[in-house]
Structure formats: C-alpha cells, structure tokens
Amino acid sequence: MKSRLLMMLAMGFTVGTVLVACGEEPDGDEAPEEDEGAEEDGAEEDGEAAGDVEEVTDMQLGTGSTGGTYYPLGNEMATVMNDNVDYDDFSVSAVSTGASVENLASIGQGDLQLGMSVHLPALDAYNGEADFDGNPVDNFGFMGHIYPEVMQIVALEDSGIESIEDLEGADVAIGPDGSGTQEAARIILEAYGLEEGDYNEYAEGFGDAANRMQNGNLDASFGLLGLPNTTIEEDLGSQRDITLLSVDEEELTDIEENSGYEGMTIEADDYSFLDEDVEAVTAYAILVGSTDQIGEDLGYEIVKGLYENTDEVSHQQGEAMDMENIMNGSNDLPLHPGAERFFEEEGLLDE
C-alpha cells in the first residue's frame, strides 16, 4: 500500500540528500555563510529567518475522499477562511485526496499548503515512522483541532458478518491508500490476527464503498469518520439493513497499548438502526499547515480567521471546532509559528 507514498517521499529525500552534499540543508534552505546577514529580516527565536518561507497565498487544502467527513467539512472550512482571513491575495480551495498520509506527504513535497489529518499519522510523519519510515516530514505545524474521529466498521446484515473476526475471507473496504482509515483498519485487523490476504481488501473511500455495499458488491467497510455520519445513516442505512461491528475488550486493550488510538463507545441512539452500544476506537482530526509556504503572519491570520468564525460552519462536526478543544491532538507535534502566536494570545499554552 505504501508504494505511491514512498515514491513521493523518496523523491524529496533524494533531493534533500543532494542538497546536503552541496552544503545545504535538506529542506532547501541555504546554509548560513559565517554570520553575514544573520540578523536581517528579524530572525525568529528558533533561528529560522523570515526569508526562508517562500509564501504561497493561493493555496490548496487537502481533505479526503468525497464520501467521508473531510471533504464536505473541508470545503466549508475553506469558505470560512476565504471570507474571514485578512491577508492580501489570500484564497484557498479544498481538494479531494487520499486523506491523512497523502496530505502530509504532499505538504512535504510542496504540493499542498494546508491539510486535514488524523493526529497519529501526523506524529508518524514528524518522527519518520510507519508510512514515513526513514522519510520524516518536518516542514509542517499543527494549526488546530477539527473534530474527534471514530472508526466505524459497517457490515451488511445479510453478509453473515457479526464480528470483526468474521471479516476473514470477506470483501472489505479498508480506506484509500494514504488515509488514516486504512492505517487504523490494519491496526484493528491485525489485533484480531487478520493479515493482508486473509480478506479481500478494497482501497477506496467510504463514499465509493457505501455505493458498492448498496449494490451488494461489498460485505463491509471501515470508515474513520465523524459521529454520526450521514452517509451511514441516510444513504446506506436507508437502502440496506446494516450493522456496526464492535471492537472486543481484549483486542481493544491491545490496540490502545500498541497505538495512539483510544477506545470509545458509539451509543445506540447515535444511529436509528442500532439496538445496543458499540465499542470503537477514536483519534483527533487536525489541521496542519506548511512552514515552508505559510509564513507566521499568514498562519496567524488563517487560524484567527477560521477559529474565530467557526459558527459559520454548518457541518455537524464543526461543532467541535471551538477554543475549548482547539489544542486537542497537538501533543508532541510542532506548532505552526502563526498558530503558536494565536494560541499564546488566547492564553492556551502552558507557561
């Protein structure tokens, strides 16, 4: 599953290696020549000169597949930013992508300026682990929490699948390559002893998977989504008899001990088709931004314009985008300098 992403990362790594060999930093910044000009342009406290940012004001926000939560919510976020960010020539367009891992890799390559991501792949990217093994992405910063993501494993009732163990031999959508859904799906399946080849996997977004399930061409699908999800309730649930698969206590303990995902309960009244609570895993959806193409002032205005106007977001998951939750998912991640200034002004950073 990693081939396309690793190719993207490897290209950047190769360029970085050549630059290092020529006496330059891997991110393309020229190595300083003695102390000449070191104090010019007001160098940041961390030593990064303002001139290091090749600012882009006509930018793209990487979201996810069209049937998931990221794409519609990301489009609303882009609209709020376009209406409220006070910065010359600023504009942002939301684009459909493979979600978390692809968004982070694309920011690393300079192809995206903003991205939505599960916070755990963002940690992997920063630390050069998992999908980013040996190829860390260090040119991004945390800009704010978006909403809690919940892994929802949907199965057709007439498939005979009643548990995650029953997915062995089934046709299962595990999310697009480069998505947080696929990463989490594999973690859950492996906790049950199910490896690649034990099930027929389809690397597609939740919207496409839901359509295939409606047509009876797919048994089950994983989706790291907001709760509740309208595609599950209104589209799929209105056409077919479906159920959500629960993560058992033993496997949940294993998942919590070996990943950053945490357990949570989907309550029976979250969906009309549920008769009892379902145990699931959860993580945070966050906004990240390039530190190569978004300077401190622009980053500040983006965070300010978005998070001071989240009442303009009509999507249900936008309700979690408030000052009380804005730092969720930021632990151990670098803060974008502009976001950090905003957080400091709001008194959100520990002294």
From TrEMBL:
<feature type="compositionally biased region" description="Acidic residues">
    <location>
        <begin position="24"/>
        <end position="54"/>
    </location>
</feature>
<feature type="signal peptide">
    <location>
        <begin position="1"/>
        <end position="20"/>
    </location>
</feature>
<protein>
    <recommendedName>
        <fullName>TRAP transporter TAXI family solute receptor</fullName>
    </recommendedName>
</protein>
<feature type="region of interest" description="Disordered">
    <location>
        <begin position="23"/>
        <end position="54"/>
    </location>
</feature>
<keyword id="KW-0732">Signal</keyword>
<dbReference type="InterPro" id="IPR011852">
    <property type="entry name" value="TRAP_TAXI"/>
</dbReference>
<dbReference type="Pfam" id="PF16868">
    <property type="entry name" value="NMT1_3"/>
</dbReference>
